[in-house]
Design goal:
Helix content: 25-40%
Distance between the termini: 26 Å
Strand content: 35-45%
CATH architecture: 3-Layer(aba) Sandwich
Radius of gyration: 15 Å
CATH class: Alpha Beta
Number of strands: 7
CATH superfamily: Gcn5-related N-acetyltransferase (GNAT)
Order of helices and strands: EHHEEEHEHEE
Low-confidence stretches: none
Number of helices: 4
Largest sheet: 7 strands, mixed
Shape: globular
CATH topology: Aminopeptidase
Number of domains: 1
Length: 160
Amino acid sequence: MVLLREYKDIDIVEMTDIWNAVVEDGIAFPQVESLSYSEAEEYFSDQTYCGVAEYRGDIAGLYILHPNNVGRCGHIGNTSYAVKENFRGKKIGRALVEDSIKRAKEFGFKILQFNAVVKTNYSAIHLYEDMGFKKLGMIPKGFLLKNGTYEDIILFYFEL
């Protein structure tokens, strides 16, 4: 069973390890540099909301929620999701997305927008489409993969 909750300071080490694994893979997150534990503590605390998924007592994944823009576009939220590799395929990602939709509404966001879903991230694309997210379009060669090649990115949105 998956338990979703707001992160606590005690979760920072596990969260940072999960986040950095995705960054280091170089195929999904735009960040290039890993976070130190102190940088992660600041980064996660700066978000509008940061949730974690516990699976059988372990932190299995997390998400961050924040505005996608400011001012007149501040009602559009953005999220990033990370699931620990050995927990993938257990519906953790779906649970994180469902929780982020609920939380985004609570914080007054009207739309979620994903700016850079890498075209080869098939599981994320399938999940977003299955949950009713709509494609806005594609940016050719918008993502620099770790191997030095470029891949297309897809923009998605979801009306809350």
